[in-house]
Write a structure and sequence with these properties.
Double Stranded RNA Binding Domain, 2 domains, single chain, alpha+beta, 4 strands
Length: about 130
């Protein structure tokens, strides 16, 4: 979902960011880029906390409604997207015992679990395959 964030800056301050749909969700950055990055993190953290607390996540407000509110009129609006945290899914894989032993050794050397190693290796292979198609 796309939420409106309002960036504002007072003299001798950092760039502040607030979210009209989430009172109390605020952040700041020394530069515009920092503020933008922090806004994404702040919104995700705030929404994930609401989900954990079983609170209702509001629908995004229309820009016209936000900008007619005197609290936000001195700021600049921009969009911050929140797609949700990817959900971990369990699945079964069959492999020959000697292949699994080799995977376990490689995973241990990499400091990863078997599952993490297999996912990382698969993603690397998928990225390489996509690159070769170009």
């Amino acid at each position: 979902m796309d939420y409106i964030a309002i960036i504002h800056k007072d003299t001798n301050s950092e760039y502040g960011v607030s979210f009209p749909d989430f009172p109390g969700c605020v952040t700041a950055g020394k530069t515009l880029e920092d503020a933008k990055n922090m806004a994404h993190e702040a919104l995700a953290f705030h929404i994930e906390g609401m989900v954990e607390d079983k609170e209702t996540i509001p629908a995004p407000s229309p820009l016209d409604d936000v900008m007619t509110d005197s609290v936000f009129q001195s700021g600049v609006a921009f969009i911050v997207s929140y797609a949700g945290r990817p959900k971990q899914v369990r699945f079964n894989v069959s492999a020959m015992d000697d292949a699994l032993a080799a995977i376990d050794v490689a995973a241990q050397k990499s400091g990863l679990t078997r599952s993490a190693f297999m996912v990382q290796s698969s993603l690397e292979k998928a990225a390489l395959a996509s690159w070769k198609e170009l």
